[in-house]
Amino acid sequence: MPPAQNPPAQNPSDARVHTDGPEPLSGPERLAKATGQEVNGVFITLFILAYIGLWIALCTPASVTLALRVADLDPDGKADSLSTIAGAGAFCALVANPVFGRLSDLSTSRWGQRRPYILGGMVLGFGALLVMGTAPNLFVLGIGWCLAQVLFNAALAAATALLPERVTDRYRGRVSGLMGTTTQIGIVSGTFLVQFTGTDNLWMFIAPGLLGLVMTGIFVCYLKELPRSRAELPRLRWADIPSSMWINPVRHPDFAWAWCGRFLTWTGVSFLTTYKAYFLMDRLGYTAEDATPVLFWSMLLLATTNTLSSYTAGWLSDRVQRRKIFVAAASVVFACAMVVVALAQSTGMFLAGVALSGLGQGMYMGVDYALVASVLPNKDTEAAKGMGVFNLSSTIPQTIAPILAPVFLALGGEDNYAALYAAAAAFCIAGAFGIRLVRGAR
Q: Residue 366 and residue 362: Cα distance in Å, rounded?
């Protein structure tokens, strides 16, 4: 009689395929069950308001008050000084976002992984704004801006991780669409506050920072997290700091192409964001005081068109379950907007270019976060690191744009904004091609 044979070992994955039991829960569903906090309308509303508050605190100096403060301290060399300070701040943001994202992933605080970094970054970032508002010279102003970039990006990295962690793929397009509106709403809100507070006192820094702190603080109090023990997480090593800024593009090509597409597009957009105040002064003849109302109306127009297109694009992408076509099309719309601004010789044409840029930015941001969440490596354990590395694709352009811009401005003379914005259009078109190469998402 032949010896009895044991049945062949069953592959666990095969058992899952043939089981009649319930589908395994996704990462966001598991977290919702564990925390007892459903991602419903209240959660999403408070999350989006917190995101707006974060951008009010960060984007108001980036878009308006930093340039005005530089012009006040160095009226003759304002363009070069702004390039230096903005570039230094962007480098600090470049490092801070993924590093603090990784530290957030490894946090064992009893307050959770995300809440300490969101609230702590906002509180300390408000202090950095006070340094900027009272700076007696460009050096102190630059130190204050670098600190603000580090601290607000620490909060941003932790907050952005909540999208892949807490929102299911079915609704990511819509939430991504709402997130896409927050940057411009933050900018226009901050510009309005500056109009209200004036441009020659400390309140133009205090008001945006304080409002942002209150809005994020409400969400942090509402957010429920489960503390992680050290046994659940890898040990924090010094090597985690440099490695937090890197995701292997060979092993994760879809993430790499999504990163490159956004990097190229945002390099072009950074030309408009950084130099729009000087464009109004140098090309259209506005003074610093007269340019402030025009900046406000341009940002209001940008926020309106951004809001309309962002949520619409996110909702449509959820319905058709496609992401790439919306992101690539948005890059092309951006390019057209840059051409309009390059040719602008009047305030009306400048505003038309801004409105078109808002449509493109809304389409892009309305779907881009959902796209990258679909191809994010290790999203269940390293969401903040992955989103932090992805955010580099929009912070690095803040460093490159101030370096490249003087080259294009010098091509045909001191006021050659046509060359600057033509180059911006070329970057945006290249970004559209980068998105087309993503294979892991539709």
A: 6
